[in-house]
Design brief:
The protein is about 55% helix and about 0% strand. The chain is mainly α and about 110 residues long. The protein has a single domain, classed as Cytochrome c-like domain (Cytochrome Bc1 Complex, Chain D, domain 2, Orthogonal Bundle), CATH 1.10.760. Helix 2 packs across helix 6, helix 4 crosses helix 5 and helix 4 runs antiparallel to helix 6.
């Protein structure tokens, strides 16, 4: 019951601050679309390039917001602007779902 109230509250808050409507998220469709991302961000979203962040296990809401910002030009990056420009809202939701679904385990140093 508490979780249901939390979801209702989050939806109301999102509507109040003008978040775009949620789109159906299909992680498998996102996986297919993410093949273009693998060049810089790695095949499972774990980047080995020093100037490309790892995307695996990032919150879907964060990833979607950043992709929308690149697409609109609000966030600047020469390569990401080109990559994000043709993405639809559905593409963004699917990509975010895919990268968020990847699990990463962190271990403290020994």
């Amino acid at each position: 019951m508490k979780r249901f109230r939390l979801v209702q509250w989050a939806l109301a808050l999102g509507a109040a601050i003008g978040l775009p409507p949620a789109h159906a998220q299909d992680a498998q469709a996102g996986r297919q679309k993410a093949q273009a991302c693998a060049v810089c961000h790695g095949p499972l979203g774990l980047s080995t390039a020093p100037d490309a962040p790892s995307l695996a296990a990032q919150p879907a809401m964060y990833l979607a917001a950043q992709l929308r910002a690149y697409r609109s030009g609000a966030r600047k990056h020469e390569v990401m602007a080109v990559m994000a420009k043709p993405l639809t809202d559905e593409d963004i939701a699917n990509l975010a779902a895919w990268f968020a679904s990847i699990r990463v385990e962190a271990q403290p140093p020994q």
